[in-house]
Specification:
2 domains; three-stranded mixed β-sheet; mainly alpha; about 300 residues; Alpha-Beta Plaits; single chain; Alpha-lytic protease prodomain-like; elongated
């Protein structure tokens, strides 16, 4: 076989990962907003001696760091899309970024729970007006950030770990990296909302214990989001089989012709909303692998298919 014909048979493994994803720009904007708010709160906290402002500013800093990991994942995947050392491209960097964000989210949830339990046992004096002001500003900023990151409900932050492929019988697969960024901002917004509720209850009804209690409630909710994201991203990173629905569509497409029978099928995610497959077909009248590839429905977004044909 000549070098020219060999090149014609070469497969590209970029799969569109060299293009800038919409989530990258939106996450960068949120980092700028979060960092600006962080600097203002830390500066005013030091200037006015407010621990509430200083603490919220440092909390913003932790989330800015987490969001920076998400942006790094986007840039790394895009810049290394042509690197042949990645067997199926850099699509899984997206899931790795989401997984890292989920781990940090879990750490923040634990920190919230521990601090809340300490304050439940040993209450501290609260400067209500100042704390409420900080919480309201935080809620507004995080609400704005959520609007920036949200895109047609891609994140499903309420998902607590069930199979993502159930959606209307289709193989819908989320941008895990963007979902991670969204959940960090959502966690911040939830913290601010619960803080406002608890602080108002403490200020006007003397229910001081509401403040740490709402912290524990928030930690439980954030941990649930974290677990859901950890489960979905780990499925991608560990090459878990795609949903039964999409596997059945592949089998039906091939087996509808002649006496074709799919005897082995491996179908897994290699990037956001894209799949690779290895199919073993048994048939009495073997045809070229390309014939069986064309029998697979084109809307399934299989970007890399390997077919093995065996005579029965």
């Amino acid at each position: 076989m000549t070098p020219k014909s060999m090149n014609a048979l070469n497969h590209s493994h970029i799969f569109g990962q060299d293009r800038k994803r919409p989530g990258e720009s939106r996450t960068i904007i949120v980092i700028v907003v979060t960092t600006t708010m962080m600097v203002v709160e830390i500066a005013t906290g030091i200037l006015f001696g407010s621990m509430a402002l200083l603490a919220d500013g440092l909390h913003m800093a932790s989330h800015a760091a987490a969001l920076s990991i998400n942006v790094f994942a986007y840039i790394y995947a895009r810049r290394h899309a042509h690197d042949e050392r990645f067997s199926f491209g850099t699509g899984k960097v997206n899931a790795l970024g989401g997984f890292s964000g989920a781990v940090l989210l879990a750490v923040f949830a634990v920190m919230m729970a521990v601090e809340s339990m300490v304050r439940l046992v040993n209450p501290v004096a609260i400067a209500f007006n100042q704390a409420i002001f900080v919480a309201v500003i935080g809620l507004v900023v995080n609400g704005l950030s959520m609007l920036i990151l949200d895109h047609k409900g891609d994140h499903h932050g309420h998902d607590s770990g069930h199979d993502e492929h159930h959606d209307h019988g289709h193989h819908h697969h989320h941008d895990h990296n963007l979902r991670s960024a969204y959940l960090h901002v959502l966690a911040d917004a939830l913290t601010s909302f619960l803080a406002i509720f608890a602080l108002l209850a403490a200020k006007y009804f003397g229910l001081i214990w509401m403040d740490p209690l709402m912290g524990i409630v928030g930690a439980i909710m954030v941990s649930r989001w974290s677990i859901g994201l950890l489960v979905s991203t780990s499925h991608v990173l560990l090459d878990r089989q795609a949903s039964a629905d999409i596997r059945q569509k592949v089998m039906d497409g091939i087996e509808k012709k002649g006496d074709n029978r799919v005897v082995d099928l491996h179908l897994w995610v290699v990037g956001p909303d894209i799949y690779a497959a290895i199919v073993s077909v048994a048939t009495g009248i073997p045809k070229p692998p390309e014939y069986y590839k064309q029998l697979i429905p084109s809307d399934l977004k299989l970007v890399h298919v390997t077919v093995e044909v065996n005579r029965t």
